[in-house]
Design a protein that fits this description.
Number of domains: 3
Largest sheet: 6 strands, antiparallel
Number of strands: 30
Strand order of the largest sheet: 4-5-6-1-8-9
Shape: globular
CATH topology of the largest domain: Lipoxygenase-1
CATH superfamily of the largest domain: sav2460 like domains
Number of helices: 2
Strand content: over 45%
Length: 386
């Protein structure tokens, strides 16, 4: 009987380690009740698992062992894939049932996450103190083994958190109107606080948001609460009223640095190519109104004096400029909005699940028509971006 038990222990232990990646979550049960969530995207397929129960998704490529079936951690997750992106969250077990309103419980439980590739420890993450009932911890690129720590607390799980800013200055806009239309076509209206922030609880489904404020051009953004019910972040950069073309780029928390590029005819003759390293005056104006290097944006370019000829606008992933196979630009949630004639003229969302560090978004032809390009590729030198 003793030999059988030893053999069983060996087989179970060996099973727990047979994976490309393994994530162990441990915490102090006397201080709080933590629950790990792992969401995964492989190609166009997306799914998630909870650490409480035993389950497999994505054709067995993402697995939760379930509580009570592990020896070295209270919750264990396995990734049986050499491709895809996986994001790890910690939630308070009772937050979504409104049974717990204490935002300090996750931090007090001192969660610790061990991440292994095979049997090799690649990261040990001790979640720092913070306030919130949900905490984003990291994203893992299974194809490279690159782990991006992004530890951030949120008040609850099923919420959409947004910030409204001035597209030219980046300053927060307080008292901006945010209209929310849900998947049932029910609507409500809220306002941003003094920091430009707004938060609303959301069920699974699509939400269409409209933004308005006196002196600014109205705009809209769509977002979705996914089945994993983890918080969603959006940023809205509102454009002050303007007749000229103004191009506004926003994105998510990763990559940290995206750059806007505009090339076209110089009114004084020849051509120009503007980006953060090439800020030139055209007809006495700097077309690059705002450069952002620390995530979210906005990064804003205004064509103050249109000339005869074609303009080309592109977005460059400076953070991953040397990585030919990177999909991080494609996963950035980048949004480009074009304003003019005191209205929103066009919107472009970055194509998903494509490789490349350069997104060629659109061109403006000689008749001032905006023509979509929507192409991702790799450009070795940003000077060569058209």
């Amino acid at each position: 009987m003793k030999k059988f038990f030893i053999l069983l222990m060996f087989l179970v232990s060996n099973y727990l380690w047979t994976a490309e990646y393994q994530v162990n979550l441990d915490w102090d049960e006397f201080e709080g009740e933590c629950n790990g969530f792992m969401s995964g995207t492989i190609g166009k397929e997306h799914a998630f698992v909870s650490g409480v129960g035993s389950e497999e998704v994505l054709d067995g490529k993402l697995i939760s062992i379930g509580e009570g079936r592990s020896f070295e951690a209270q919750q264990i997750f396995k990734i049986n894939s050499k491709d895809g992106y996986f994001t790890f969250w910690i939630k308070d077990k009772f937050a979504d049932d409104d049974l717990n309103s204490d935002p300090t419980l996750i931090a007090r439980a001192k969660p610790m996450i061990s991440v292994y590739k095979g049997k090799n420890l690649i990261d040990l993450i001790k979640v720092p103190e913070g306030s919130g009932l949900a905490c984003k911890v990291f994203t893992l690129d299974a194809s490279t083994g690159e782990l991006d720590r992004e530890i951030k607390y949120f008040p609850k799980s099923r919420i959409i958190v947004g910030k409204v800013v001035n597209a030219v200055t980046g300053d927060p806009l307080s008292d901006a109107n945010v209209s929310i239309v849900d998947y049932m076509k029910d609507s409500r209206l809220i306002k941003t606080d003094e920091t430009g922030i707004f938060i609303f609880e959301a069920e699974i489904g699509q939400y269409d948001l409209g933004f308005s404020k006196e002196g600014f051009i109205g705009t809209s953004i769509s977002t979705r609460m996914g089945a994993d019910e983890t918080p969603r972040e959006i940023i809205c950069a509102m454009c002050p009223e303007i007749k000229e073309f103004r191009i506004v780029l926003t994105w998510g928390s990763r990559p940290r640095d995206l750059d806007a590029h505009l090339s076209g005819p110089n009114p004084d003759g020849g051509d120009f190519h503007i980006w953060y390293r090439n800020k030139i005056l055209i007809a006495g104006k700097d077309f690059l109104d705002r450069d952002d290097t620390d995530k979210y944006g906005p990064e804003t370019i205004t064509i103050y004096k249109p000339a005869i000829g074609e303009y080309y606008y592109s977005v460059y992933d400076y953070s991953n400029k040397k990585k030919k196979r990177s999909k991080k630009l494609s996963r950035s949630n980048a949004l480009v909005q074009v304003y003019g004639q005191k209205k929103l003229l066009a919107s472009f969302e970055v194509p998903e699940n494509l490789k490349g560090n350069s997104w060629h978004v659109f061109k403006i032809d000689e008749s001032h028509e905006i023509i979509s390009i929507e192409k991702l590729d790799f450009v070795k030198n940003e000077r060569d971006i058209q």
